[in-house]
Structure formats: structure tokens, C-alpha cells
Write a structure and sequence with these properties.
Blueprint: H1 6-23, E1 30-38, H2 46-59, E2 65-69, E3 72-76, H3 80-93, E4 98-106, H4 110-114, E5 129-136, H5 138-159, E6 166-170, E7 179-184, H6 190-197, E8 205-211, E9 214-220, H7 223-247, E10 254-258, E11 262-268, H8 273-281, E12 283-291, H9 297-303, E13 310-314, E14 321-331, E15 335-343, E16 346-353, H10 355-367, E17 372-387, E18 390-406, E19 414-417, H11 422-434, E20 441-448, H12 451-480, H13 482-504, H14 511-528
Antiparallel strand pairs: 1-3, 1-4, 2-3, 5-11, 5-20, 6-7, 7-9, 8-9, 10-11, 12-14, 12-17, 13-14, 15-16, 16-19, 17-18
Helix pairs in contact: 1-13, 5-7, 7-11, 12-13, 12-14, 13-14
Length: 529
């Protein structure tokens, strides 16, 4: 009888035991789950888990298991109805602290999870995913364009030394702003003002009118320009959403326009859906401004208004007020790249500007050495509150200073943003690198994508695998007798090893993958016998 060295038997047995251990999580299945993550990207604590559990019990929402996975709380449920009820309850109670997303959680025992063992992720044809429907604020996009024209008009008049009282965005017809209005004092030269505004307001319908206190120049968008701006905002948002999805590593996403002002986003196989949902909808951009060193920030707070040409902000890191000049040096739209790095002060974001912004930054830093410059993070969101028993929705813009520093040297298009935590730096770099949204988007629908189709495919695929293997094993045992049983054990070990290897590599299981396993079994039979 053929004999092998004992260490070879021990090696084979050890490999098979380890393979069985790695393949084991795939046999427990999964349940509907709710993923709960902190908005500040900190890890969820044990106290927070207890608070959420107590709240769900108080609301009468039944759940099977809770555990922390990579800093996020996972809550498993026996049914989709409980999952949806828990999502609504948590969103209502912890709206300012946590973000939630529907997901699926494996029923893997805790001791296997602690060992870092996980089942194979399902492929796009088996796993559902996240379905999001966003509404685009197309009117806000028009307002942004008008604000840009207004800022260019102020700069042009100041450069030409033409006095003006105010430059505002106004509505010509209806309630929607569609024009820029420049109010001039009586001593101003209207013709010179129109000549100075020809370039910055190019393409707009410019008219002049006389006022009791002077003159006014009005530049209005045409209906065609309004539609063009709205279409541009939707297309730009689609591009930005695609970039953000790609940065997050979601494969084969669907991001497309739906109707007049909506965007449909389908993310098959999303695992970190809470973060994905938060990142996709964030309207965040940066502004670089000089600090107002001539006026007192505390006097501005006491008066309740900032001096002319300045604006009052709050520094998020120190919680103190700060006074910044209204003139913008550069914006997040002018960034060409943003990566996470390190600085002597801790985590940082390495920023690279385009040529135009870099030139402006060079001039500013050269003329303002030893003065302070700040970075303003601007985020827009929609907030729903209850007033007199009715739900009222309003748009909120948060403007906060995330960093301010003294200009120690001259620089142009390459520099760092510091004063951030590791999570904040990583998220800010992703948002800036993927591009800013042209205007605000509001989520109006969220649901899982195709879970019934995925489950049906999984069941049919597993049934085909089991029946196919059972038929092959039975044939081998009957036809080849003892050698057939040995071959069956070898084939079973082959399937276990293949499953373990796919689980270790975190390779996605798809319908072609199931067919490949069946084909492997058939080819192994031919090779064995």
C-alpha cells in the first residue's frame, strides 16, 4: 500500500480545517439590517448602541441582534417591515447625530466575526443594492449664476472707479430671481457704468431706468439662458455623482436623469451604504478668504452686523467668531486635485488649484505676507421641522471656518489645508476631488434594489449546484464504488477550498461564478477518474 510521510497528512488536514473555517460563514445566510453611522465619522460607542437598543424597544420595534462593524452599528431584523420601522424611528429620534441606510447583514456567529471571517459578497446579479432618487434645485442653479454675475459686476465697477449703491439679484416676473440690478448714485456716469458692465454681463439683456435717487442698470437672463443653466446644473450633478460613486469604489453604478429635474442613482452591491448616502448628497464647497485684521470681531458681534466688505463666521475648531473679507480668493470649483496627507499639525488635505485660481492666490499671498487667510466650508441642506402642527421644509446653508493660518510665504496653486481630523480630511478630499454639485439635491426616495430577484437567483443557483453535485456524487459512488466515494470526498474538499479561497479574496459571487463551480466539479470528475 502506498504510504506518505506523516507531515503530509497533517498538512492536508490542517489546510482542509482552515478552508472549512473560512468557508463556514457562507452557510449562515443573511437578514435585513439597518446600518447606523455617526455624522461626524467617529466610531459608534457601546453607550450609543445601548441608547439605540433602548429606543427601539421603547418604540416596540423588534430586532434580532446588534453589533459594531468597522465603527458602524448593524441592527439585524427578522423582517423587512421591522427594518423599515426601525429606520423611520431612528431617523426621527437621532436625525442630528446619526445617518442610516438599509442593508443586509450576514448571520455569521460572533466568534467568526471576531476572527475577521466574512461570507463572499454577492455579485451585481444576485445582490440588490441602494436605490436613491434625488430632486435637483434647478432654481437654485439659476440663483448661483446670477450671484456670480453680481460679483463680477461689483469687481468691474470697482476696477473702473465707478461708484454704486448696491448690486442685487432681483425677480423680474414672478417670484424667481432672473436678473441682476445695479443701483447707481446721482453723480455716477450711467454710460460709463454700462460700458464697464458690458464684459462681465455679456449675453444678458441689459436695460437702464431712472430712479428718484439716481439710476439703475438691470441685466436679465433670457428664457433660453435659464433653461440652459438648469440643464447644465442637472448634467453637472450627474457627473459629480458618478465621480463620487467611483471614488467610493462602487462598481457598475447607474446614475441617470429622470424626468425634468430628478436624478436616479442605483448602487448594486453597496456595503457601506450609510457613508455612500451621506457623501452623495452633500453640497460642499470651499472658499478661501483673507481675515479682516482692521476691524474688531467682537464689536461686529455686539452690533449684530459685520463692517462693510466683511462677513462674520464661526471657527469650528475653536468655537470662536472670526471676521473675514467678502472678496473670494479661490473656490472649491477651481480645484484640480485634492489628496489626504500629513503635516506637522496632523492630517491635512493637499490642494492643487487651476491656473487662474493659482495666479490669484499668488498675487494675494505676495501682497498679504504675515496676514491671515481662512478656509470656509459651505454646505447646503434641506431641513424639515414642525410648526403649528404642520411640517415645514426650509433650505439651510451652513458656512463654517475649518482652518485659518498666517501667510508665512508666497505660494500659488499648491498648498495644504490643516486643522482636520483623519475622517474629516479623507471626506473633504473625496468631495473636492470628485467635484462639487452645481446646485443642491434633495433625496425624495430610498429603497433596496431588486432583493426579490436576487434571492430568486440565489435559490435557483444554489439548487442547481446542490442537485448537480448530488447527481455527480451518486453516479461516482454507484459506478466506481469505493474509489467513487474517495473521489466524492476529494470533490467536496475541492468545493470547500474554492469557497474558502473566494471568501479570503473577498471575490464577489455571481451567477456565472456558480456555473463555474459546477463546471469545476464536472471537470474534476473527469480528471479524478
Amino acid at each position: 500500500m502506498l504510504e506518505y510521510a506523516r507531515w503530509k497528512y497533517i498538512l492536508v488536514a490542517t489546510v482542509l480545517v482552515l478552508a472549512l473555517l473560512f468557508a463556514l460563514p457562507n452557510f449562515f445566510g443573511e437578514d435585513p439590517a439597518l446600518q447606523v453611522a455617526r455624522k461626524d465619522h467617529a466610531a459608534v460607542t457601546a453607550d450609543a448602541v445601548q441608547a439605540v437598543e433602548a429606543f427601539l424597544k421603547e418604540r416596540g420595534v423588534h430586532f434580532d441582534k446588534t453589533y459594531i462593524d468597522n465603527g458602524r452599528l448593524m441592527v439585524r431584523f427578522a423582517s423587512v417591515a421591522d427594518q423599515l420601522a426601525a429606520r423611520d424611528a431612528v431617523n426621527e429620534r437621532f436625525t442630528g447625530t446619526y445617518i442610516t441606510a438599509l442593508s443586509f447583514a450576514p448571520r455569521t456567529p460572533e466568534f467568526l466575526r471576531k476572527l475577521g471571517l466574512r461570507p463572499m459578497p454577492l455579485g451585481l446579479d444576485l445582490r440588490g443594492g441602494l436605490y436613491l432618487l434625488y430632486q435637483v434645485d434647478v432654481n437654485g442653479a439659476v440663483n448661483q449664476a446670477l450671484e456670480g454675475y453680481a460679483q463680477d459686476a461689483r469687481r468691474a465697477l470697482a476696477a473702473a472707479n465707478i461708484p454704486f449703491k448696491d448690486v442685487t439679484v432681483v425677480a423680474v416676473e414672478g417670484n424667481r430671481p432672473t436678473a441682476v440690478r445695479v443701483v447707481l448714485p446721482p453723480e455716477a456716469d450711467v454710460n460709463a457704468a454700462r460700458s464697464a458692465l458690458t464684459q462681465p454681463l455679456q449675453g444678458l439683456n441689459i436695460t437702464t431706468e431712472s430712479l428718484p435717487s439716481g439710476s439703475a442698470i438691470q441685466a436679465a437672463l433670457t428664457p433660453a439662458q435659464i433653461r440652459e443653466r438648469q440643464d447644465y446644473a442637472i448634467q453637472q450633478n450627474i457627473t459629480t455623482l458618478r465621480n463620487r460613486v467611483n471614488e467610493l469604489g462602487v462598481s457598475e453604478p447607474i446614475v441617470q436623469r429622470q424626468g425634468v429635474d430628478r436624478i436616479n442613482v442605483q448602487l448594486p452591491g453597496v456595503q457601506n451604504s450609510a457613508e455612500v448616502k451621506d457623501i452623495l448628497g452633500r453640497v460642499a464647497t470651499l472658499e478661501f478668504r483673507l481675515e479682516d485684521m482692521q476691524n474688531s470681531v467682537y464689536e461686529a458681534m455686539q452690533r449684530g452686523r459685520a463692517p462693510l466688505g466683511s462677513k462674520l463666521y464661526t471657527h469650528t475648531r475653536f468655537g470662536r467668531p472670526i471676521l473675514l473679507k467678502r472678496d473670494i480668493i479661490a473656490t472649491g470649483d477651481q480645484l484640480t486635485n485634492a489628496t489626504v496627507g500629513q503635516s506637522p499639525e496632523g492630517p491635512a488635505v493637499n490642494v492643487k488649484l487651476d491656473a487662474r485660481a493659482g495666479e490669484n492666490m499668488l498675487k494675494t499671498t505676495r501682497a498679504n505676507l504675515n496676514k491671515r487667510m481662512a478656509v470656509v466650508l459651505i454646505e447646503k441642506r434641506r431641513e424639515t421641522s414642525e410648526v403649528d402642527g404642520k411640517k415645514v421644509t426650509r433650505d439651510v446653508t451652513d458656512e463654517q471656518v475649518i482652518n485659518d493660518a498666517t501667510i508665512r510665504g508666497v505660494f500659488s496653486n499648491n498648498f495644504q489645508i490643516t486643522g482636520l481630523s483623519a475622517g474629516e480630511a479623507r471626506e473633504l478630499a473625496l468631495l473636492l476631488r470628485s467635484g462639487s454639485l452645481a446646485t443642491v439635491i434633495y433625496p425624495i426616495e430610498e429603497r433596496a434594489v431588486g432583493p426579490s430577484l436576487g434571492r430568486d437567483n440565489i435559490d435557483k443557483g444554489v439548487t442547481a449546484l446542490v442537485l448537480g453535485m448530488a447527481g455527480v456524487f451518486a453516479f461516482m459512488a454507484i459506478y466506481y464504488r469505493t474509489f467513487g466515494v474517495v473521489a466524492d470526498l476529494v470533490l467536496l474538499a475541492n468545493v470547500v477550498l474554492l469557497t474558502a479561497l473566494l471568501s479570503m479574496m473577498r471575490a464577489s459571487l455571481s451567477l456565472p461564478g456558480i456555473a463555474g463551480i459546477i463546471l469545476t466539479v464536472g471537470m474534476a470528475v473527469d480528471a479524478t477518474c
